[in-house]
Amino acid sequence: MSRRALLGTAGAAVAVTAASACAAEAPKPQEAMRGQVVGKASEVPEGGGVVFNSSKLVVTQPEAGEYRAFTAACTHGGCTVQEIEEGLIRCLCHGSEFDYASGEVVTGPAQEPLEEFGITVEGDDIVLD
């Protein structure tokens, strides 16, 4: 094996190992926020929702007093979803749409639903379980 081939193979192996380690060890922002307030219930309209950018969550209220929380990262390309209207959570990057009550894909290109997170409403505070 030539020196160039050996160095190229070694460099590729290091890059793959480093990427795998980072992906395996980096907790999701939501995991680090368990037990913390992620937003205010008064900001989430009945029949709609809000994207809380600081927690990277979208919180919806399909029925009065029924709150649901999903990751705000689209499962297609990782863009942050931008709109919640007409019963849909919309990602404007590539057009994916998700049901605002279940997180299930309504329109692709996304193939996987939004990850759901448990929340509790304490007074006006939305707390991540």
From TrEMBL:
Keyword Endoplasmic reticulum: no
Pfam families: Rieske
Superkingdom of the source species: Bacteria
Record's GO cellular component terms: membrane
Extent of the signal sequence: 1-23
Keyword Iron: yes
PANTHER family in the record: CYTOCHROME B-C1 COMPLEX SUBUNIT RIESKE, MITOCHONDRIAL
Name listed for the protein in its UniProt record: Cytochrome bc1 complex Rieske iron-sulfur subunit
Organism from which the protein derives: Nocardiopsis algeriensis
Source lineage: Bacteria, Bacillati, Actinomycetota, Actinomycetes, Streptosporangiales
